[in-house]
Amino acid sequence: MEAGKTGWRAALISLLLLGCLLLVWHVATLPKESAAGAAQDEYAKLMGKSSGAAKSDGFPGLAQMGETIRKELSNPFYDNGPNDKGIGIQLGYSLGRVGLGFAIAALVAIPFGFLLGMSPLMQRALNPFIQILKPISPLAWMPLALYTIKDSSVSGVFVIFICSVWPMLMNTAFGVASVRRDWLNVAKTLEVKPLRRAFLVILPAAAPTILTGMRISMGIAWLVIVAAEMLVGGTGIGYFVWNEWNNLSLTSVIFAILVIGATGMVLDLFFARLQKLVTYVE
């Protein structure tokens, strides 16, 4: 009951903060009429012309943002050519690249993480390579990927793979190595075969830590894909942001930023729910 009250209070505070933010935005973007603008309006009246709208500082107001959001969401999957696609199509391209790169990283990182966690020898042998490669920015691999792969879309998938593999690898190795020795000793006493022990004893025990690594990897992957698509262009939500900036459509840029944030939140909530499902109380 207390948790429910806390949830309602948190939601109320969030709504109040959102309302304050929107109010500040509205006040900050109110049209500001300068002396020159007033003179121009007076001149227009003398000439029998209607006065123009008061000039603002250039940042879009809430009404402009609302119109852009309505326009973009009314037809998110339109396709009028290479440089004119709806936000839904661009988001689909980005999610596809992230999903493919993330899946390949999981197929590589989780088995290797088991190997490192179950074998201190292999962990010591491979640790220098991991420590050298892990700090390299994923975008630093983009020129090499473009030169060797010669395909911007596949290069984007490769960059997602590179940035996703390390958190999953390290968290899997840590989770496997942290399994309670009592459980492993019982499995050894019962003469459980290594493969069966890995799936029935080690994997359930290490699952929360593995999901934590996957959650971190997904967050990093979603950050990186936007920057990568800005660099390589073509399609994707990152390219959408860059293209709208080149078109001087600041409202569309802000709308895309909101879509990126909302999508990242949904992905994080998905992995948080998975993490909660596999978490157990000892």
Poorly predicted ranges: 49-57
Give helix % range. Answer: over 70%
Secondary-structure element pattern, one letter each: HHHHHHHHHHH
Distance between the termini: 25 Å
Counting helices, strands and paired strands, the structural category is mainly alpha
Tell me the β content. under 5%
Shape: globular
Main sheet specs: none
Nearest-integer average pLDDT? 84
Please tally the helical runs, counting DSSP H or I stretches of 4 or more residues.
11
Rg calc: 26 Å
- Count every beta strand, where a strand is a DSSP E run of 2 or more residues: 0
Main location: membrane
Keywords: Cell inner membrane, Cell membrane, Ion transport, Membrane, Transmembrane, Transmembrane helix, Transport
Family: Belongs to the binding-protein-dependent transport system permease family.
Transmembrane segments: 98-117, 129-149, 155-177, 198-214, 220-241, 253-272
Describe this structure in words.
With 282 residues, this protein is an all-alpha fold. 78% of the residues lie in helices and 0% in strands.
Task: List the keywords.
282 residues; mainly alpha
